[in-house]
Amino acid sequence: MSFDTLIMKAIKDELQEELTGAPVQRVYENERGEIILYLHSRGHQPGLLFSTDPRYARIHLTHSRYSHRDKPSPFCMLLRKYLISGRVKDFFTPPLERILEMRFAPPYGMPPVRLIAEIMGRRSNLILVDDKDNVLGAAKTVSWEKNPRRAILPGEIYRPVPPQNKLNPLEMNCQRFSAFFRYFLNEGKEPEQALFSSVGGLSPLTARELLYRSGWKQTSHANTADEHLFEEVKKIFAESEAGRFTPVMLPDQKIYAAIELTHLAGEKQVTYEQACTMLDQFYGMLISEDREKTLREQLKNTVNKRLKNLTNKKKQQEKELEASTKAPRHRLFGEMLLAYGHEVPKGADSVVLPDLYNPEEMVEIPLDPAKSVSANAQRHFNRYQKAKKGRKKIRAQINKTKTEIEYCQNLLYALDSGDLSSLEEIRQEMIEAGYLPKKEQGKEKKKGDTAPQPFKFKSSAGHTILVGRNNRQNDHITFKTAARRDTWFHAREIPGSHVLLKEAPSPPPDEDIEEAAFLAAYFSRGRESGAVDIDYTEVRHVRRRPGSKPGSVFYENFNTVTANPGDQKLRERFGLE
């Protein structure tokens, strides 16, 4: 990422052309705390987005949809008061600064104001100032204690950002440039860092590009090398002043620039006509990826914690089951007490008697000294009956725990392989399953109302193949989308997607079976193995497990084939990596 002064100048030029004279109709704050001004310009209503998030600080026009906060911040309410019904008067960027000032012709009865966006990483801010330079409010207030040079508080005078001790590329000469540049080189800085430290308005990425364009590293004579670099710096800023930009984005590198990056000519570069369009797409992609990563980690942590508890619970249940195997001994104790009751001393806490079935062996029986022989016998019979019933209950609990462990393993597979929309579905599923608090359910229910969107493929014979991306989608395609005679596929004994072959005859053609089985293997935890056993059967033979979570099934009357998820021909056939 590189929101530098060249990008700021390109944005300013585009906004000047697009929004000058446009009235402000609405002011909203999205869920990320970003401010969006909606204006009316040339028959449409563009949104002007301001972000002071340290990771995504930026300004650009946007056509993306955002969810707005139900309770906007006081600063957002302040902007509504001063800006709605006002008109954009003009834009101004101080030389070599990542600062944009937006001046407004005020609505009736309100004073003129300026909205100042300072895009400076973690120090980014959005400040509303009146015509006397008094700060009316800011997205981030800064006290004198935090910044003794520049407080940003309502009622304080707005003080511009202190200038950096760098050369102005539009005014410097070659001799002064070379002196600055060589000074930083002699201090041990790398060439791109030395150039960045010498000249104002450059980012490290642009500095790297200018060094490449000038051939500085390949030029043996120092003075000549510096002259070439000086000329490239002057040229790039002259083009910026003239409004000539070539916005480019490198999606794989997650960087962008206002100029073509020739030093990365081997990388995929997407060129745009407008910097605003580029930034809208770039940050939309970046935020979506970051949100996906964060959501995946949060959900996986929740599932892993649950899985750990279930594993410990299963071990404890197995210990209880093992202990219950001693239940028949209590029945034997009761029978022995009834048979040899005359040999039991009164008030004893234990007695040793011959085993009824192996008289040569002696068995010690614990007793309650306060009870009679018959009462002690009944006590052991009761313990036998309780342990016998408990054994059945423990087995049922172990089966239930195993089923939930399997469900968690399926969740982890789906979380590893799902995209953002699939992760949102999984989060809703986890809320309904009680893995996440229900306080989140209000907003998520709206998303859950939309029908699941499984992957859809076409077999070589033209039949539809559906692949569930999570448990909810698996449940949907198997029990709501499928017809009874459709063919259902799943990897044997490992987490994976439900795969449904629709519209094919029964039994399906061998080619359809091969392709659907390949997809079931590819969309399973066995993707990296050379062979995966795939079971398939008609949907009418697939049943939900009673009381189980979504996607948990049992099936019968199935056949099994072996599929290779690494089959390159089939991967290319279905457009899979």
General description of the model:
- The protein has 577 residues and is of the alpha+beta class.
- Among the domains are: 134 residues, ibrinogen binding protein from staphylococcus aureus fold (Roll); 98 residues, no CATH class; 122 residues, no CATH class.
- Helix 4 crosses helix 5, helix 7 runs antiparallel to helix 9 and helix 7 runs parallel beside helix 10.
- The longest helix is centred in the middle third of the chain and has 50 residues.
- The protein is elongated, with a radius of gyration of 36 Å.
What distinguishing features does this structure have?
single chain, 577 residues, alpha+beta, 5-stranded antiparallel β-sheet, ibrinogen binding protein from staphylococcus aureus fold, 14 helices
Low-confidence stretches: 440-448
CATH architecture classification name of the domain at 5-138: Roll
C-alpha geometry: elongated
Looking at the structure, the CATH topology of the domain at 5-138 is ibrinogen binding protein from staphylococcus aureus fold
- Assign the CATH superfamily of the domain at 5-138: ibrinogen binding protein from staphylococcus aureus domain
How many strands in all? 22
Computed over alpha carbons, the radius of gyration is: 36 Å
So how many helices? 14
Give the strand content.
15-25%
